[in-house]
Amino acid sequence: MASTSVFALLSLVSFVILRSLQKKRDTKGLPLPPGPPPLPFVGNVVGVDTNHPWLAYSRWGVEYGEIVYSRLFSQDIVIINSERVAHDLLDRRSHNYSTRPPGLIRVLDFFGVEFSSIFLPYSDRWRLHRRIFHQAFRSEAAPAFRPIQMRNAHNLVLNLLASPEEYGAHLHTFSTSIIMSIVYDYDTAPRDDPFIAIVERSLEISVRELRPEVAAVVGEFPILEKLPPWFPGANFVRGALLQRTLVPVVVNTPFEHAAGTAASSMVSDALCRIPEHAKNEQEAVALEKAIMEASASGYAAASETTTSTLYVFLLAMILYPQVQVRAQAEIDSVIGELERLPDWDDRASMPYVNAVIQETLRWFPVVPLGIPHATVNEDVYEGYYIPKGATVMANAWFMSRNPEKYPDPTRFVPERHMPKVAVEGSSTHGRDDISFAFGFGRRVCVGRYVADASLFAAVVNILAIFRVQRVPGWHVGPDAKGVEWTGGVTTHPVFPCIFTPRHAKERVSELIGAQCG
C-alpha cells in the first residue's frame, strides 16, 4: 500500500512539471493583469483556503486592484473585484465571457451531473434550458407562485414552534418544498421528508466538489479520477460514486410525478408546449429531455441559495437586535398585535423589512464568487491580456465590501437601502438593488424574482411570530468575526440561536389554520 501511494505521488508531481514546461503563451507583448507572484509549477496554491477562496482573492483585491490574475497549476484564473469591471466584461462583452471552464465541465461529467443548466457551456443546449426557465420564472410569472410561498412560510413557522432547535432542517424544508411545488407540483411532507433528505445529500456533494479550484486540480491530474475509492484522500472519488447513485433519484422521481399529473407546474406546462415546438418525434424527445434536465438543475440551485440566505438573515437578527426590533415594530404597525398574518399586499407598507432583505443579500453573499465564467477567446482589457480559456470569477464578496459604496461594510445596516433625503454636505446613493448577488451577463440568475418573494415570505413571518436571540455564552462581535462558515460554491454561517414566540402558540396556529381552511 505504501509503495503504491509513493508511486502515485511521484506520477502526479512528474505530470504537473511536464504540463508546466509545455505551456507557452503569446501575450502579444501585453502584461497579464496584476496578481500575486506564482510559485513554479503549482502557481498560487499557497495561501488560498480552497474551502473559502474568496478570502484570499479579496486580500489580493486590496493589494492588486479591480482585476487580478492568478494561476492554479496550469489553469489561468482572472478575479474581478469590482462591479465596474464585471459590467464591462461579463455584461458588455458577454459574447466572450458566457461559457464555463472546460475543466469544471469535466468534473460535472465525472459526478454524473453534466446536464446541469447552471454549469453548461454557452451553447444551443444551454439556450434551450434558459428558455424553459424564463417561461416559468420571468418577472411577470413570479406572482403566480405567491400562494405556494406563503403556505410554506406558514409551515416553516409551525415547524419552528414545534422544534426550534432543528431550525436548519426547517429552513431546508421551506426552500426545497417551494421550488418542488413550483417546478413539479410535488408536495413534500411538512417535516422529515425522505426525498428532501436525498436532495440535501446530493446538494452537499455538489456544493463541496463542483468548484473551479477542484476542477483545476482534476484537470491537472486526470489520474485522480482513476483512483480507487479506498485510496487515502480519495474523498473526491467517493463523493462522485455516491452522487452518481443519487442523481437518478433526484432527477427522475419528481419529473415522473409532474409528467403524470394534470396540475400546473413548470414541468407539466413545458411538456404541454412540446407539440407547438417539436416538428417530429426526435425533436419531441430532445425537448422532453431538456425539460427534465432544466427542472432538476433549477430546483437544486434554488433550494441551496434560499436556505443559505435565510441562515445569514437569522445571524444578522441575533447580532443586531436593534434591527430586529425596528423591523418588528414596522410589521406590527401594519398587522397589529397579530390581529392577522402578514400578506403580500403588506409588502409595499414595509420598506424597512424590504431593506433588511436587501442588506442580507449584501452583507454576506451566499455565492461569494458566483458561478465561474470562462473566456471563449483571448481578450485585452485596459491594456491587460486575458488568456483564452481563463476561468473568470466575479468576486461578489469583495464587491459587497466596497467602502465607497457601502460605508462601514462589515456592519449590517438596512438603512443603506432606504431612500435617502440628500442633506447639504452629505453623500447619498439612494436605493441599491445589489444586483451583483445574482450574477452578471447572460448567466444572471433567472430565478431572482422568485427567490426575492420566497425570502420576503419567510422573513416577514419569522419576524412577526418570533424573537430570534443569541444563545447565552455565545460571544461573537456584530461584524460576525469568528463565526464559522461552510465552504464550497455556496456558504452559510453555522451558529446556535433561540426562537422565542412573541405571541401565544395557540393564536398563531389558529391564524394559520384559518388561512389554510
Can you walk me through this structure?
With 517 residues, this protein is an alpha+beta fold. The protein has a single domain, classed as Cytochrome P450 (Cytochrome p450, Orthogonal Bundle), CATH 1.10.630.10. Helix content is 51%, strand content 7%. It has helices at 2-22, 53-64, 83-91, 94-97, 102-110, 124-137, 146-162, 167-184, 194-209, 212-220, 235-259, 266-272, 274-277, 281-319, 321-335, 351-363, 396-399, 448-465, 505-516, and strands at 67-72, 75-80, 373-374, 379-381, 384-386, 391-394, 466-469, 484-485, 493-494, 498-501. The strands form four sheets. A four-stranded mixed beta sheet has the order 1-2-6-3. The chain has a two-stranded antiparallel ribbon with strand order 4-5. A two-stranded antiparallel sheet has the order 7-10. Strand 8 (484-485) and strand 9 (493-494) form a beta hairpin. Helix 7 (146-162) packs antiparallel against helix 19 (505-516) and helix 14 packs parallel to helix 18 (448-465). It is globular, with a radius of gyration of 24 Å. Mean pLDDT is 88; it is low at 1-11 and 421-431.
Mean pLDDT: 88
Net shape: globular
Query: What's the CATH class label?
Result: Mainly Alpha
Order of H and E elements: HHEEHHHHHHHHHHHHHHEEEEHHEEEEH
Rg value:
24 Å
Describe the largest sheet. 4 strands, mixed
Distance between the termini: 65 Å
